[in-house]
Amino acid sequence: MAVTIIVIVIVVVLLAAAVGILLRRQRALQQRFGPEYDRLAAEVGPRRARSELAERERRIAQLDIRPLSAERRAAYDTQWATLQEQFIDTPSRAAEAADSLVTAVAADRGYQVADRERLLPDLSVYHADRIQEYRLARQTTEQAGAAATEDLRQAMLAYRALLRELLEAPDGAGEAQPATEATPVSPTPPLTLPVPPAPRTSGLDDADEAETETEAGTRSLADAPTAPTAPTASTARRAPNAR
After folding, report:
1. Residue range 49-86, pLDDT digits in tens
2. Cα separation of 107 and 93, whole Å?
3. Rounded to whole angstroms, how far apart are CA atoms 64 and 111?
4. What's the whole-model pTM score?
5. Alpha carbons 186 and 70: distance in angstroms, whole number
């Protein structure tokens, strides 16, 4: 009888320890992946979600994820500035180019980009807070020809947010290489997004509407010395020949 009780106690203790480990692992995944964990758990269940996210972490750990040099970051900043100007006249084409730019930067960082469907979950390991917006932006871009200008603008903002993190964040702190005096890492200039002219859709007067669009479209992405930026939409409407 005593032996049976001891065995039962041992089994209960082991089960409690296993449950505790499982709960800690679940909390860790929820903290790291946030809404991405919730989305996946709702789709396939918590157990499969934990397995999938753990597999993502193992896969990324095998890649050579590396930070970018100051020169590469500056080059990508220049490309983004060009897309800002292009967005004023051709929003759909600019959104498609922005999607390609994010993919190019991810490849430069060391991500595997040949499979676009695999790229999104891979990016979620270090950029989980941007993945849902990025997912929606890609869906909008795939229908760029029929998408509304505002939807394309939101897609551009999502691309810009993820691009900023890819340019600035050393994914995997242990893999980041410190800067040296020979190759200093300079601050990334703020990236801005002008808003193209669009028909009025609210009761705001022209001045208030222009101010609202400009504030949303030109929010700075980083506190750093600013570089010349493309004209805002309101300026473009007042002086179309000034660009």
Report:
1. 889 999 999 999 999 999 999 999 999 999 999 999 99
2. 21
3. 8
4. 0.62
5. 6
